[in-house]
Write the structure tokens for this entry.
Amino acid sequence: MLRLRGLLWLACLGPLFFLTYNFANATAAARSHVPSLAFD
């Protein structure tokens, strides 16, 4: 029962993670006026 519950959480939260990650990347890529910062 506990294993099934974990798989259900994974099935629900996995796609949510990828959708929000893709949305954040697309939003950041659309903002070209923001300079980039790199540390040496």
